[in-house]
Amino acid sequence: MKLIKTFLTLFLIALLASVGCLYYAFKVEPYRLTLNEHQVQSVASEEKLKLVQISDLHIKKDYTAKHLEKVVQKVNEQSPDFIVFTGDLYDNYSNYQDNEQVASKLAHLRARYGKIAIWGNRDYGGGASRIYENMMQQAGFSLLRNENLVVGTSQGRSILFTGLDDALLGNPVLPPTVEEMNGTAYDILLTHEPDEVIQYQGKGYELILSGHSHGGQVNIPFFPQVQKKAAAVMGHANRYTGGLYTLDTGEKLYVNTGIGTTHLSARFGVLPEIAVFYI
């Protein structure tokens, strides 16, 4: 009898723990935010510039424009010089859209020198390609598709942003950059899918920013294969799943694990993130 009671007690504890974990994964963690800061200066400069990256918002029925208020507040608290969005605004535009409210919330993001965005695969699917460019322009973003943008600062530094088209549903082509790089202090490449970096490393960029992977959305301690397999579901995110990498050619690659969710509206051990870079 004592053995049975012990077994039942353990079973009840395990059941409650499982229910608690599921509740946390679906109802708590997806709505939290973490701030990750990184020093990535390659050249000493008296002017300290702050760049904030957000990625993969995946707006949908359970993550609406209302939830963007917390994101906007957190980003603006950083007083960024630049804001970069590396793609995937909606999760599935054919299932849910709220263009006016989403654009309005994003318009409240404030950056001293500019806001830059690129295309993700979800920005093409479900009819999103018809509205994405207009929405980002309404929100005050410069949307790049195989284009360069050089932005000057008040102290005379020039920062180059190269934004590539999405690799899954678009047609990424690296635009000529040699002439622009000769006159810039720092060069940043934006590409939605991280594994695409193999094609662009060694091109002279100090920093490459991407997203798409969501970090797998699930990271169970002592079972790293779960996160790796989950990230692989995204496609083009098998090699680089999240965080800061130093490539063989010396460039820094940062894979933002995103803010929203896709496939499954849950996160566990992979908090929604805002990344801050000092360049």
TrEMBL record:
GO terms for cellular component: membrane. Residues 50-215 form the Calcineurin-like phosphoesterase domain. CDD domains: MPP_YkuE_C. GO terms for molecular function: UDP-2,3-diacylglucosamine hydrolase activity. One of its GO terms (biological process) is lipid A biosynthetic process. This is Metallophosphoesterase.
